[in-house]
């Protein structure tokens, strides 16, 4: 009986959805939701098209993993083994709730940043939809509904694992059902609101910029703003390392100094939802969370409405956007260096192609700036781990924390570039390289090497020299800079050991069975390059003669790569334009 | 049926077209010619209601199209200059979407789409996403989308772009067949030979202004040239094209 009722309800829902999706509004809604996931560039233009399924899994993973770890922390048997007694879940979980709030806001914000401009209708939508017999109001409302649907989906997917598993881990073993429901509902409601707030805040920024700025200026500024927002999200994520510890000591009521952080406001809201919001600070935080959420929601709608009128309606009067506008080139101190290291005509041509694509293509710049943001946040986190500035540069030699900063930046920029090389750009245009380049001349690696080095060292090495000079003196500055240069050269050689493509001219590498291992190798590489290498350097700089140890180490790395490449068959070194190598990103 | 009265369009302070007046009657195929930047696309956008004129009106069946754009577009088929389609939709999905948005009845929609996909040789590619279509295939999808609701007016902006020889011949004959059935066709193109073959009337545009108008033979006789190419060069091109070719060759081999 129950089963048949369920089945008929399911069937009725399906039929209703079928009927709705065949109405013009339903059809538009489906189209707009689809375009938000599939991107709005041509499939061969470099926009990574992951599909809804993969996006959903990627977004749900962080919450799932952290929730699973909570079973280890709150499991009654494990607590019994540790000798821990009963606890009040509403107080004991405050640091973890903060972490979940941060995670939820950062993942939702990152997803919204990724889809930053796909929420706005573009020229293609205009040319396909406006000539059809449908009202502009329908287009506007359908896209607005699609934005809400996207936020709802992001919010749900990002939090679904923690909404189910986390309450189970914390209060699942307690006998009271009402306690479980109170805890679970409070957690779910606040996580969903925080997540929605983060997504709406990002869309509100995009909408306001699009409303206030002319289209050309918006395109120029857009990347910078996204970079700044990504940096803010990373900083917010970074707070999850320190704040939970402080919260343990301060309690929520004593956390006035931290009130500026949005997750703290939502923590206040959580206390209120749990029925513990009697303290004035908690009440104030609850009001702040409501105000932030309301403002983000209202600004998103207003900004979207104005930008629809201002931008979408004027599309036929504006020229096609094309690539990012060219930044006027003034005298570049790197130019003479560049011309001297680019020896052959094909190296010069390919270098300029790669450099211009990196600097003018939205997708590639996003990847590069994402890795740079990661490097900056990691550097800031490393420096902040030292108690004060003086301790960074000790009396005999600078500390490893100080020395590691250029290594972190070099690693992140190099990996970012290497990753960006795999993102294709206008594949049908690669015929020019197919036509002109000699596949057997092995030009791919020299070109990629020059790009990696010229995009990292010309700014990183002088900055490293100047800062170390100011803090550590001539000898230390020169030695540190020399080691940075040589290590970066070795790192680049390792990254390019099997490289045989002209960047951006091949399709995305396919997923291989050992792709996971490659990611782990990159993580180990990061630890070695940014932790052990600066440690060794710090030890060496205390007595400059010890620096000679770096010579055999670097010699071994470079010699090993040289030997490895000599062993390779000629056919494995040939230039390729399709994915045929053992691994695309190795 | 479709009329433009004194259409002008300014982009900021730049004049794109000035005082365009034309009329498109049932069964008429009107060729619209002009060099790049002469204002052809701007006129097309104003005729389709995508762009509001700075001055003048577009009248359809005696009414300004902007008074009821939806009703006008229901009777209009439009092939834009660029086949800017959604690459992640299949051809079938795209046509289904357009038919739904045109509010075509369900039964007619399915039948028409499958018949047209067969006739335009796209049936076997109907479930392939359009990102992997060739330029000609995308153009054929656009033609199907424009034709499938049996519109009274067809506005075609370079419809033969990227099509193979057979498709070009089919389209040329199709335009004439549609015209014989009383459909009005506004045909905007660079390909003089095709315009000469399919258009009954002609408008030539230069720097945003109409410089010749009438039946194809009237225009030819008026200018005193035997071919449309001669007419076009006489009216539009200020430079001697033969001399230009010679100059190019001399630059290549001085």
Question: Summarize this, please?
Answer:
The complex is a heterodimer of chains A (586) and B (254). Chain A is mainly alpha-helical and 586 residues long.
Helix proportion of residues of chain A, in percent? over 70%
CA distance, first residue to last residue of chain B: 56 Å
Report the count of strand segments of chain B: 10
| Quantity of strands of chain A, as a count | 0
Mean pLDDT, all residues of chain B: 88
* Largest sheet properties of chain B: 6 strands, mixed
Broad shape of chain B: globular
Strand content of chain A: under 5%
Question: Strand percentage of chain B, roughly?
Answer: 15-25%
Which fold name fills CATH's third level, the topology of the domain at 2-15 and 23-84 and 153-252 in chain B? Rossmann fold
* Fraction of residues in H or I helices of chain B: 40-55%
Could you say which structural class the secondary elements and strand pairing of chain A correspond to? mainly alpha
Question: What are the segments of chain B in which pLDDT stays under 50 over at least 5 consecutive residues?
Answer: none
Largest interface: A-B, 27 and 31 residues
How are helices and strands ordered from N to C of chain A? Answer: HHHHHHHHHHHHHHHHHHHHHH
Radius of gyration of chain B over all CA atoms, rounded: 19 Å
Highest CATH level, the class of the domain at 2-15 and 23-84 and 153-252 in chain B: Alpha Beta
Summarize the helix and strand pattern of chain B as letters: EEEHEEHEHHHEHEHEEHHH
Q: CATH H-level name of the domain at 2-15 and 23-84 and 153-252 in chain B... which superfamily?
A: P-loop containing nucleotide triphosphate hydrolases
Shape descriptor of chain A? globular
Give the second-level CATH assignment, the architecture of the domain at 2-15 and 23-84 and 153-252 in chain B. Answer: 3-Layer(aba) Sandwich
Overall description:
The complex is a heterodimer of chains A (586) and B (254). Chain A has two domains: 52-121 and 155-315, no CATH class; 343-572, no CATH class. Chain A has helices at residues 2-21, 24-38, 51-74, 76-82, 89-92, 94-114, 123-129, 136-171, 177-212, 215-250, 262-273, 280-310, 335-341, 345-360, 362-384, 389-392, 400-421, 431-436, 444-472, 474-495, 515-541, 550-567. Chain A is globular. In chain A, helix 2 packs across helix 8, helix 3 runs antiparallel to helix 6 (94-114) and helix 20 packs parallel to helix 22 (550-567). The termini of chain A are far apart. The longest helix of chain A is centred in the first third of the chain and has 36 residues, at 136-171. By secondary structure, chain A is mostly helical. With 254 residues, chain B is of the alpha/beta class. Chain B has a domain at 2-15 and 23-84 and 153-252: 3-Layer(aba) Sandwich (Rossmann fold). In chain B, 41% of the residues lie in helices and 24% in strands. Chain B contains ten helices and ten strands. In chain B, the strands form two sheets. In chain B, strands 6-7-8-3-9-10 form a six-stranded mixed beta sheet, sandwiched between helices. In chain B, strands 2-1-4-5 form a four-stranded antiparallel beta sheet, with helices on one face. In chain B, strand 9 and strand 10 (209-215) form a beta hairpin. The radius of gyration of chain B is 19 Å and the shape is globular. Chain B starts with a strand and ends with a helix. Chain A binds chain B through residues 22-24, 27-28, 31, 34-35, 38, 42-44, 49, 123-124, 126-135, 316-317, and chain B through 11, 45, 48-51, 70-74, 76, 78, 80, 82, 84-89, 97-98, 100-103, 106, 129, 131-132.
